[in-house]
Structure formats: structure tokens, C-alpha cells
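Regression test case RT-17, inverse folding.

Input:
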């Protein structure tokens, strides 16, 4: 039996997932493997490095720092999230990421990216976070339109949420048969087709496969919601989600909202802690 943790993205809604994971760490709940998409990847890696509280600390500390993310970075670098600062200076110097613990912990860590030229999901297992491997996490969290595609080994990648938002099925194929899935939308949520399809196609005219993914993402996402609900009914999956729509936008940086959403995640974990333990002990 392999115990998995599946993390969807959602930008700053991922602070909910960070709260759930910190509570899980505090309660001594350990999966055998994690798979993260977008913010699920950037935040989830801290579980394998045993750094409880790190996601909250750096998001509060640097929320107003123009070097972290925002319009200045987008205008000057064509990336909403500033690459040199967020993926190098911050984890290397300012809020140090424990690469040694990450590499030594036996927990598997996987991320999902979207191949720009095929429009297909690409899955990557990451065993260490050196300068090359961190590019996979960056690619998984690089949103179309506000990010430059990340080139790795001659291929280009963007946000994994475009092609596999909730990769439970993939993790099951790897043998993870008992899974906790952390969602950042409330129960009953359904994604709608974008209302600005012509604009999306225009802005992404140089990456038509990604444009197609964005236009049709609601179909993929809603099918995955149906699938994870079916798996929950079968008893092999536990869903953790906010009880209501999270009071924070995808790119919102207000301190009170960051902390509130994080605390909502911790409470959601506490509410389901016995079910989580029972699932992993089956």
C-alpha cells in the first residue's frame, strides 16, 4: 500500500493547502509520495524538506516586495513571478530551502507541467532541488500569458494545471492506492468555460496548443472532479477542501487574507484528522 498526497494549484488559494500540510506535519501524518500542480508544486516541496511554516513565512515577509512578484516583474521580465529572486535568492539566501533534507527524505515528489508544443501533461519526479531541477517546479507554476515558457532539455513547459489539474488518476497508476487530495475550491464547484475565448487565442497565438488547453480546461477539470468524487465513494481517497469559496484572489497579497486562508487550511485538516489517519492506516 502506497500513501499519496495530491495537491492542485490555484495561486494564492494554495495557502489553504499550505495550512493543511503544516497541520499534517504537526500531527505526524506522512505520505509516501506527493504530486503537486502549480502552487501545489511550489508549496508542496516544503513537506519533503520538513519545513513547517516556511510557505506562510515567506509569503507574508515578501508579499509587498517588488522583487517577488507583480506588475514590475511582468513588465521588466515578462514573468509575473520574478525568477532570479523567487527561485534563487529567496530559497538560497533569504528563506533558505533545506535541499539536503529534501534529497535525503525517501518521500517521492512529483510535479505536473504542460508541454507547450504538444498540449499534453508531462510528469516529472524530482529527487533533489538543484538549479536544474527547480526549473521543473517553476515550469509547473508558470501561468500562460503572464509567464515566459520554461525551456528544459530543448522542450518548453508551462503551468501543469492546463493539462492535469488534479492528477489523482496518474498517481494511482504509479501505485498510490490510498490518497488524500487537497482542493482549493469548495465542494460543488464547477469550472465554467472562459468568456474571453477570442482574447485568449489572440494572447496565446504563439502557443496555440496552450490556448486550446485554456479554452477547454473546464471540461478536463470537471471530469477530474467527477473522478475524484467517485474514488472518494470507493473509500480509497479522502478529499480536503474549503467549506466556502476562499476569500483570496489568485494573485492577492494582503497579509490578513494570506493568514486567514492558511488558518482555514489548518482547521480543515483538524476537522478531518481522524479520517486521514484511518485512510493511511488501511
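Golden output:
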Amino acid at each position: 500500500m502506497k500513501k499519496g498526497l495530491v495537491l492542485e494549484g490555484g495561486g494564492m488559494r494554495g495557502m489553504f493547502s499550505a495550512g493543511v500540510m503544516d497541520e499534517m506535519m504537526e500531527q505526524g501524518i506522512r505520505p509516501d509520495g506527493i504530486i503537486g500542480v502549480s502552487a501545489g508544486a511550489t508549496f508542496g516541496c516544503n513537506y519533503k524538506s520538513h519545513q513547517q511554516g516556511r510557505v506562510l513565512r515567506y509569503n507574508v515577509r515578501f508579499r509587498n516586495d517588488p522583487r517577488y512578484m507583480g506588475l514590475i516583474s511582468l513588465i521588466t521580465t515578462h514573468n509575473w513571478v520574478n525568477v532570479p529572486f523567487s527561485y534563487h535568492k529567496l530559497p538560497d539566501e533569504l528563506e533558505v530551502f533545506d535541499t539536503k533534507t529534501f534529497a535525503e527524505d525517501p518521500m517521492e515528489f512529483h510535479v505536473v507541467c504542460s508541454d507547450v508544443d504538444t498540449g499534453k501533461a508531462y510528469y516529472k519526479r524530482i529527487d533533489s532541488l538543484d538549479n536544474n531541477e527547480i526549473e521543473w517546479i517553476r515550469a509547473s507554476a508558470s501561468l500562460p500569458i503572464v509567464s515566459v515558457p520554461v525551456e528544459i532539455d530543448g522542450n518548453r513547459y508551462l503551468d501543469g494545471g492546463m493539462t492535469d489539474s488534479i492528477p489523482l488518476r496518474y498517481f494511482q497508476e504509479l501505485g498510490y492506492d490510498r490518497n488524500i487530495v487537497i482542493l482549493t475550491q469548495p465542494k460543488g464547484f464547477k469550472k465554467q468555460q472562459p468568456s474571453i475565448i477570442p482574447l485568449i487565442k489572440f494572447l496565446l497565438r504563439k502557443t496555440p496548443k496552450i490556448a486550446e488547453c485554456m479554452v477547454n480546461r473546464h471540461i478536463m477539470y470537471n471530469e477530474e472532479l467527477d473522478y475524484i468524487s467517485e474514488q472518494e465513494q470507493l473509500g480509497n481517497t479522502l478529499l480536503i477542501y474549503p467549506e466556502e469559496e476562499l476569500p483570496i484572489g489568485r494573485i492577492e497579497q494582503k497579509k490578513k487574507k494570506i493568514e486567514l486562508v492558511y488558518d482555514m487550511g489548518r482547521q480543515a485538516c483538524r476537522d478531518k484528522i481522524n479520517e486521514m489517519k484511518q485512510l493511511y492506516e488501511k
